[in-house]
Amino acid sequence: KCVSNFTAAIEPCLEPAEKENKKIIQNITDSLLNFVCFKEGDRIALFISANGPECLQSKQQEIGNCVNATFGKYVPPIDPNSGSLVGLDSLPTLVLGQKECGDISTVQGCIVKELEKCSDPTPANIVDSIFNFILRVTPCKDVMAV
């Protein structure tokens, strides 16, 4: 319900192509819940027992670098004087085409590679699975082999 309320609230601000993504957002949310709740939460329990939160915390900077290197071009720069985003009125359209799906795949690979440096590979494997689980319910499933 929260996601439905959110997508309804932002709908007036969206371009027609972006409005089609409302269903994708709902699909992603449902997919995440199914992933986390699978077998009474076994996956999340495994993630926690394999020091997943600690692994994520220790790789926070590297994960940020992966995201910024891949998606930084989508976000307008910050005005150093005002601290606000420059060009907020000309944000790129939020659509999932071949380029965007490729960027998601790139950030996935980068993040997983960093998490594989933790002492236990389980958190990296689970994060990789989460990305794959989400991508299967988006147009990216048609663009690339997931």
UniProtKB/TrEMBL annotation:
<dbReference type="InterPro" id="IPR009832">
    <property type="entry name" value="DUF1397"/>
</dbReference>
<dbReference type="Pfam" id="PF07165">
    <property type="entry name" value="DUF1397"/>
</dbReference>
<protein>
    <submittedName>
        <fullName>27 kDa hemolymph protein</fullName>
    </submittedName>
</protein>
